[in-house]
Amino acid sequence: MNKPVTVDESLAREFGLTSEEYGRVLSIMGRTPSLTELGVFSVMWSEHCSYKSSRKWLRTLPTKAPWVIHGPGENAGVVDIGQGYAAIFKMESHNHPSFIEPYQGAATGVGGILRDVFTMGARPIANLNALRFGSPENPVTRRVIDGVVRGIGGYGNCVGVPTVGGEINFHPAYDGNPLVNAMTVGLARKDRIFLSAAAGVGNPVVYVGSRTGRDGIHGATMSSAEFDEDALSKRPTVQVGDPFIEKLLIEACLELMATDAIIAIQDMGAAGLTSSSVEMAGKGGVGIELDLDAVPQREPNMTAYEMMLSESQERMLMVLRPDRTDVARKIFEKWELDFAIIGHLTDTGHIVVKHKGQLEADIPLDPLAEQAPIYDRPATPPKAPAPLEGVHAPLSLDATLLKLVGSPDLASRAWVWNQYDSTVGGQTVRRPGAADAAIVKVEDTDIGLAITTDCTPRYCQADPKTGGAQAVAEAWRNLTATGARPLAVTDNLNFANPEKPEIMGQFVAAVEGMGKACSALDFPVVSGNVSLYNETRNPDGSTTAILPTPAIGALGVLDDVNKAVGLGMQPESDVVLIGETKGELGQTIWLREILGQEAGAPPPVDLAAEKCNGDFVRSAILDGTITACHDIADGGIMVAVAEMVMASGIGCELESPTSGIRPEAFWFGEDQARYLACVADGKALCARAQAAGVPARIIARSGGNDLILPSGVTISAARLKTAHEAFFPMLMGN
Amino acid sequence: MAIALKRVTGQAPRMIWHHETDLGDTDLVVLPGGFSYGDYLRCGAMAAHSPIMGAIKAFAQKGGHILGVCNGFQILTETGLLPGALLRNANLRFLSQDCYLKVEAENTPFTHKWKKGDVFRTPLAHGDGNYTADIATLERLEGEGLVAFRYADAKGNVQADDAISNPNGSINSIAGILSENKRICGMMPHPEDLVDPLMGGEDGLPLFQGLVEAVVR
Fold this sequence. Notes:
The complex is a heterodimer of chains A (734) and B (217). Chain A is an alpha+beta fold. In chain A, 35% of the residues lie in helices and 23% in strands. Chain A has a 7-stranded mixed beta sheet. Chain A has a 7-stranded mixed beta sheet with strand order 23-25-22-26-24-27-28, sandwiched between helices. Chain A is globular and about 85 Å long. With 217 residues, chain B is of the alpha+beta class. In chain B, the strands form 2 sheets. In chain B, strands 1-2-9-8-7-4-5 form a 7-stranded mixed beta sheet, with helices on one face. A two-stranded antiparallel ribbon of chain B has the order 3-6. The longest helix of chain B is centred in the C-terminal third of the chain and has 12 residues, at 205-216. The A-B interface holds A 150, 153-154, 157-158, 160, 242-245, 247, 414, 417-424, 426-429, 431, 441, 443, 561-562, 734 and B 1, 3-4, 33-35, 37-40, 91, 93-97, 123, 125, 127, 190, 192-193, 196, 198-200. Chain A: Substrate binds at residues 93-96, 115, 239, 311-313, 531. Chain A: Its EC number is 6.3.5.3. Chain A: ATP binds at residues 51, 90, 491, 528. Chain A: Mg(2+) 2 binds at residues 116, 267. Chain A: It is an enzyme of class 6 (ligase).
């Protein structure tokens, strides 16, 4: 049973607070806190909940545009997509739990981000996942992939929300710390958005959903520390998901949201009942009193501390109009979910927690929020990478291409996607791999939403500022390549230990690069999540940090979804290369996979060229000139061409580059701001591009089923696909 | 499913709550896909015991038309309205992909828009779609022409031991079956997800057009 514990500085440190932070707790309380109070402070002031290392820099990001309805600060970002609709979206990490227990870690990551979105009144219509795994050679990687993919599918498929896209990278830096970043997009009427600020002294505080158990206690603190060799002993801090309850919760909440009963609503995510009650009351400037005896409980004899810190899944907290509690109760009873009035709002400005007649916590809310630590941590600016020199191509173009399309970062992801239901709901216009972004239709309208996730961690490692800008630019480009108008971004910033100046330096530089790109492209950040301490302590005392990974989730809109284009090569077309090619080989997939080097500077990001080229491409898609489009990213032009050929099975004949650039640099360089476009009349498009100041040239003519290289060597679409599709089944054993 | 039915009939289907016990006046009952009760005990097992199932069984006995897709098919086998069972997919993973179906039974309410041997594309999305039945049942299904659809390749070749054309490992590549009176059909793939060119094609439309004609007749 529960041993009596002494609350002191050493316990506070065990809970993840520093000595200085504990001193601050003592001064706010004017006494030694109770165990429950210490628990509340420790989770609210954890990195996960307080953003204490990142907040100063997050404030520098652009967050506003005329179409932004709610930016950061709410459960998710909200943008206007026209015809009275709003898209609500966010991406969030579940990295640490996904290493400890891959299935449940990933599953509850999906569940958590769904709740962030439907809390605001939106029906979730699409899920995406940005995943980073360790080296394919590491035996642990296979176990992690298997569990994560099963977990994402197990939760998302059951809930009935299509999983339509995402990305996967492999790198040894993720061996002990994979990244699982889950994104959800939801749809709401823009005049029916629900917020979390509580109001109305005396109004009831209502708990709905699953019962509270002992799972996930101190999860937020766990995810705010680096891993050591005992990581797997932390399994009890991982929560267990129940997607069927989530499905019921979505339906019940949306049914209740159609009434006028709800004043404020907040999901119970990290730090559970503590963060939801503190944030709702804090935002509303009121006090809150909770009676834990009324909390639906899964197991007997839970303490106040356990209930306040439990991260049991599928729970929501609401403030209701007192005259509507019966309406609400009936709806939740219909869906067979627990419904309990567990407290009320007060005018004290305190959170007061009672349990079995005892006062367990009484904390003033203002200082809990306002005196939360914010750190301006020392940051060492990253060193500029040395330029790449003297590389040469050891393999023929055809052998290089076949190797690249089968390499871990470029190989077909079909093995993964085929375990996710991508069509449930009947609104998926472009499934994974069919276009540069997933496209889902807004039912009963012609509006299409284009959605993507992007980041190139090896660029970020070499040059975090360029890498941060590139992640934003690539997301913008992927939306553009479908014909969509990019609207806004959600960011999921995954970094290592911010207490190390070189890591903090990566963070600061990446955010600076992101901010510049977001400003230049009119592409504000409307929601996000920061995941720090993604670092593993090795048995010899050294540490392995992940690559800096500022994953970008992005959303764009097509006013007429019928105008969207995919990436599959179209028959009898000219293939036009849009954007300038200098042959940037630094940090390319070619360099890594063919020469075994991770060296040089990543390709520079010219934001003016991005905007100019992208706006040109979009207009030519929307007027029907461009019939297929693919952005040029990892692997350069030739990999992009091969991907177009594999997507439709239609081949093409490539022309020789006449630019004076060495062939490997021309074909495999990863210069930014470039697209390949299929058009009936390539000359006409090039003339139009020239008039718009956009570099463009015809590089191929489509037809047949083969990719014909400039040397005359022929590779059939089928042979490309065989090379492309082998990696995942070989790795995973089926 | 509701979207597909509305597309074909011009009107939204009436949704029935699982606690109801009366179907009201209807020509057609559709059991759609979707993890009823979380599929926690066994796919479709708990839904087979939900209060509305009594009325559905009575509807079947009166010769009513019933279509069960995916979880709906699983529910129909769990209630005994269709024979056999759906096991875990042969590769033990959830599968979400396009497949090709070969039409096996002509002149049924579900297939009369096609000819025997026609092949059409349709998405599938399930973890437990591996159809099986005892030998006597199989012989009866095959002998009486009660196999509605089989998994095949794009050219219509059926090969039960080929994991590409028969992705979930179903016995005799069976993708959909009929009741003895051919008025109940259960199938694992989702023809309702391919009824709109915008979503990639209309290959699934003939099933719904034919079904509506059959029940109105």
